[in-house]
């Protein structure tokens, strides 16, 4: 059974985050999603094709946007690659689903049921609309829920993921909820930016990223401590930082640049910030 948690927005901070995403209409998310109807809220991975910066000026913007979208969908594919064995009879959870692009991709790849949760009602409504347009709303559903207390059933999910959404919550609370949701032996996967414990304290560039997104980036070590405390055992840890840099270099040259590109590039290149994938089994 599914129970309705209450309330969805518990704190002033959560209300402010929900308000931010309810009002967000950033072209860097919307125009990229318009390319093929997959709307993401994360960054990209892999080298970009330098040819998109060449050729007729009149079509340069469209080429760059299409390439940025290709890179962000490639990032989602990397995450899905690390979910472990998934069959059509399984159920997956996209925690902090944004406008739902990764959930749609997961259903297309595995044929299974996918639930997404977000504290932004606007995102949930948009994502459900996209699922209806694609004719998969019987298998892909989005819910206005708090990922710290979803009310979704216990041990019902083969895999759960966060894609660049953990910086908005307490990790111990989050991983306790994910451990409850996952079946024994199920897989939790996260892709996230995290600060470097070794350098001691956050850099100016990391602080600027926090300020831009109204978030609180966690140190790298906090992920592993919170996982260990909640029965999540890392199976794969991948440093995606080098593969993330080209996306930001291309975005900085695009019409969609928001001003946060330089802090990301500075933080990555100075080593104060890492882009990690962690895949862990529920024991």
Question: What does this protein structure show overall?
Answer:
Pfam families: Methyltransf_25 (PF13649). This is Geranyl diphosphate 2-C-methyltransferase. It is an enzyme of class 2 (transferase). This protein has 283 residues and is an alpha/beta fold. The chain has helices at residues 12-23, 27-33, 60-81, 101-110, 121-134, 171-181, 204-213, 220-228, 241-252, 261-270; strands at residues 91-95, 113-118, 140-144, 157-163, 182-195, 232-239, 273-282. Helix 5 (121-134) links the parallel strand 2 (113-118) and strand 3 (140-144). The longest helix is centred in the N-terminal third of the chain and has 22 residues, at 60-81. It is globular and about 55 Å long.
Q: What's the gist of this structure?
A:
Helices cover 41% and strands 19% of the residues.
pLDDT < 50 runs, ≥5 residues:
none
Largest sheet: 7 strands, mixed
Q: Which class do the helix and strand fractions yield? A: alpha/beta
Q: What percentage of residues falls in helices of 4 or more residues?
A: 40-55%
Number of E-type strands: 7
Q: What's the mean pLDDT score?
A: 95
Helix tally? 10
Strand residue content: 15-25%
Spatial order of strands in the largest sheet: 3-2-1-4-5-7-6
N-to-C CA distance: 23 Å
Q: H/E series, N to C?
A: HHHEHEHEEHEHHEHHE
What is the rounded Rg?
Answer: 18 Å
Based on Cα principal axes, name the global outline: globular
Keywords: Methyltransferase, Transferase
Organism: Streptomyces gamaensis
Enzyme class: transferase
GO molecular function, one term: methyltransferase activity
């Amino acid at each position: 059974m599914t129970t309705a948690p209450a309330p969805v927005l518990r704190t002033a901070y959560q209300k402010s985050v929900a308000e931010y995403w309810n009002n967000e209409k950033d072209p860097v998310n919307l125009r990229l999603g318009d390319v093929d109807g997959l709307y993401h809220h994360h960054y990209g991975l892999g080298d970009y094709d330098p040819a998109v910066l060449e050729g007729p000026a009149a079509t340069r913007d469209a080429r760059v946007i299409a390439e940025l979208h290709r890179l962000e969908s490639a990032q989602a594919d990397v995450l899905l690659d690390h979910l472990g064995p998934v069959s059509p009879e399984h159920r997956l959870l996209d925690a902090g689903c944004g406008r739902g692009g990764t959930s749609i991709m997961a259903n297309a790849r595995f044929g299974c049921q996918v639930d997404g949760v977000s504290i932004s009602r606007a995102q949930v409504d948009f994502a459900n609309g996209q699922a209806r347009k694609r004719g998969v709303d019987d298998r892909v559903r989005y819910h206005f829920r708090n990922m710290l207390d979803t009310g979704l059933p216990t041990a019902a999910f083969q895999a759960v993921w966060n894609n660049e959404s953990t910086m908005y919550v307490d990790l111990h609370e989050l991983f306790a909820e994910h451990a409850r949701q996952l079946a024994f032996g199920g897989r939790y996967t996260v892709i996230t930016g995290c600060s470097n414990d070794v350098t001691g304290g956050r850099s100016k560039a990391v602080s600027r990223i926090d300020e831009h997104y109204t978030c609180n980036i966690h140190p790298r070590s906090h992920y592993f401590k919170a996982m260990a405390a909640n029965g999540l055992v890392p199976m794969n840890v991948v440093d995606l930082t080098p593969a993330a840099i080209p996306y930001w270099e291309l975005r900085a040259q695009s019409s969609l640049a928001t001003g946060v590109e330089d802090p990301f590039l500075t933080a990555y290149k100075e080593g104060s910030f890492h882009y990690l994938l962690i895949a862990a089994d529920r024991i």
